[in-house]
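BUG-207 | component: ligand-complex export | severity: low

The export step for 2-acetamido-2-deoxy-beta-D-glucopyranose jobs runs without errors, but we want the raw record kept on the ticket for reference. Input record follows.
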Amino acid sequence: MQIKAVASALAIASLAAAAVPTTGVAHVKNADGVDIKFVFTTVPKGLNVTITGKGLTIAKRVLATGYDYHVHVKPVTNGNCSSTGGHLDPTNVTTAKPCDPKNLTLCQTGDLAGKFGNFMGTEDGVLPFTDYIDTQLKFEGDANNTIIGRSIVIHNNGTRIACADIITEGSATPTSGTDAPKTTSGAVKLAGSLALSGVVAFMMLAL
Ligand SMILES: *[C@@H]1O[C@H](CO)[C@@H](O)[C@H](O)[C@H]1NC(C)=O
Ligand SMILES: *[C@@H]1O[C@H](CO)[C@@H](O)[C@H](O)[C@H]1NC(C)=O
Ligand SMILES: *[C@@H]1O[C@H](CO)[C@@H](O)[C@H](O)[C@H]1NC(C)=O
Ligand SMILES: *[C@@H]1O[C@H](CO)[C@@H](O)[C@H](O)[C@H]1NC(C)=O
Ligand SMILES: *[C@@H]1O[C@H](CO)[C@@H](O)[C@H](O)[C@H]1NC(C)=O
Ligand SMILES: *[C@@H]1O[C@H](CO)[C@@H](O)[C@H](O)[C@H]1NC(C)=O
């Protein structure tokens, strides 16, 4: 009886956890050696963003100001970074005025480079460990605001050199809003159902 109660509690906790993800990952790679992992984790003030990886060299950098990068509104179709649409900008800031990290009302929500600085590149391409809290990014909220179902794109003087979908835990996919992503990730659903089937298997063992 006790085991069954624990198993049920676990099943309920697992369903609740699936509703709003707490972690998202974008693994940005290209054929030219870019291999960078963005991890988004929920913290009280927003999302904790950690960035690790390699492939951004000073030699390939077109501008001395570095490589900029953003959250784009749509997921990647067929590996084509141009398919991701524009920057996530639910408050319609546009790029008319440059982002000011001290005044976020001037920053597009998706303009991570504008808020926290460009990647400058290094001799060997290895990125210094990067970690910051972004108070505008969120998993929750309406379809215009969430970063669920969107992508990360890295630019080199405007050219989109590498991109990847933000894959989250759970399945809280936005369904409405002008900028709502049009497709959902199969990987997200699969991960959710695998987690759930694990709990079900445990419950059956307990019986
Ligand atoms: C953000 O994540 C990094 C890496 O896991 C961790 O070291 C850091 O303490 C986290 N920051 C907050 C505010 O949770
Ligand atoms: C990539 O996406 C853009 C924008 O949707 C489109 O115009 C272009 O034709 C696509 N390129 C390829 C090779 O599919
Ligand atoms: C965004 O701002 C531009 C320029 O100020 C304006 O023309 C446009 O209608 C706005 N779009 C939305 C969706 O508010
Ligand atoms: C932030 O920018 C907005 C829009 O330009 C401006 O109205 C506001 O005064 C600025 N706030 C601060 C604290 O500078
Ligand atoms: C950067 O891109 C712009 C616009 O495409 C182009 O005019 C400029 O020449 C490029 N800069 C360099 C240094 O290649
Ligand atoms: C998304 O933004 C558009 C235009 O800014 C607005 O009309 C719409 O109501 C928003 N959607 C949600 C779900 O808030």
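Assignee comment: Attached the raw record above. The CA atoms of residues 143 and 174 lie 5 Å apart.
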